[in-house]
Amino acid sequence: MCKALKKNNTPAGFALGHATGDANGWLHWSCGPWRLYVDKDDKVIINSPETVKALEYCKALSDNFIPGVASWNDSSNNKAFLSGELPDVRTASRSMLRQGRSEQEGAC
């Protein structure tokens, strides 16, 4: 989906690094469950085939994001959506943002 969005000049964009709230939520589903990072004895493992595969998937997704996501904070995805740079947004306040964008578009 991210490749298709980018090809259509409507790339996806998720925060990657400087956000602490829901903007980083995509990492929870894209990098897989936490069991990828601990073994059966609860020892932290990073260099497992599952973790490598999950991180490669995250990298492939991020290659198709709108430029600048590595510096985004919690509000950056919302600002990009409201300005029309992103076709959609996944946040807890999604419906309020959609309403704000509709009002902005109606005022133009």
Describe this structure in words.
- Helix content is 43%, strand content 0%.
- The chain starts with a helix and ends with a helix.
- The chain has helices at residues 2-7, 26-30, 49-62, 76-82, 94-107.
- 15% of the residues are buried.
- With 108 residues, the chain is an all-alpha fold.
- The longest helix is centred in the middle third of the chain and has 14 residues, at 49-62.
- It has one domain.
- It is built from five helices and no strands.
- The mean pLDDT is 75.
Summary keywords:
108 residues, mainly alpha, 5 helices, elongated
- Average pLDDT value? 75
Binned strand content: under 5%
Using only C-alpha atoms, the radius of gyration works out to 16 Å
**Helical content, roughly?**
40-55%
Largest sheet: none
Low-confidence stretches: none
Tell me the total number of β-strands.
0
